[in-house]
Amino acid sequence: MRRGNKWYIILSVLFSSLLMSYVDGVIAPTYFVKSCIKICLFLIVPLGYFLVDRSERNKALMRSIFVWKRKDLVNALLLGMGVYVVIMVAYMIFRNFIDLSLIQDSLASGMRVTAENFVYVAVYISFVNSLLEEFFFRGYAYMILKSETNSKFACVFSAILFAMYHVGMTSGWFSWYIYVLAMLGLFVGGCIFNVLNDHCGTIYPSWLVHMFANFAINTVGFILFGFI
Q1: Which residues, other chains included, contact 186 with Cβ-Cβ below 8 Å and sequence gap of 6+?
Q2: Local confidence band at 130 (pLDDT 50, 70, 90 cut-offs)
């Protein structure tokens, strides 16, 4: 175990996740500014790890997380469709307990997301933002970290930070009990994503599932902004 590498990953994931949550919840910049900050934290910071350690081992690890394995994608696609259905059913069940106007006001006043630009934001969230988060939390914080520690620690650590990262952007959206359920769901979802990628050896299966989860969230957004 290379001690310096392990601590670089742990501290950089902790710093980037908590700072991004702070940016979302406290600074609340426009969505464009927020996206630029996220690219710096979730892409450039991890790439610094590979600049520090340019060993063949690290190069092989980096390449492996982006290997496209077609045989694993069908199951991931079916799982993603199932996740879409589950989220939409959960929305139907809990929608009377959620003040959607608070979410809409938060999006408009905080990130400047409105009906006029929501379609563009939805496309970015579904395809680009989901891949960025998968690279950071599943590729870097799990698959690379487990090579320096062990699978159990890396899985729990990355899933906890994945949930904590969402605290800032969703603060004030729900009642406390729904908020706790949402954070628990994100933690469990992060663990499932890690297991899914562990089986396949790449981040693409979890990206597909993540994409469909975002499709469901964006569907709720289309309802919220009156498109549906």
Answers
A1: 159, 162, 163, 166
A2: very high
Two structure tokens written together for 223: 């309802």
Separation of alpha carbons 56 and 62, rounded Å: 10
Regarding pTM above 0.85, the answer is yes
Q: Are 78 and 198 in contact (CB under 8 A)?
A: no
Sequence-ordered strand ranges (E) for 138-190: none
60-102 confidence digits (pLDDT tens): 888 888 887 777 788 888 999 999 999 899 888 878 776 666 6
104-139: b (≥16 Cβ within 10 Å) or e = bebbeebbbbeeeebeebbebbbeebbbbbbbbbbb
At a CB cut-off of 8 Å and minimum separation 6, what does 146 contact? 153, 154, 155
Contact criterion met (CB below 8 Å) for 15 and 141: no
195 close to 75: Cβ distance less than 8 angstroms:
no
Per residue in 136-172, pLDDT (tens digit) is 999 999 999 998 999 999 999 999 999 999 887 776 6
The C-alpha atoms of residue 226 and residue 163 are separated, in whole angstroms, by 29
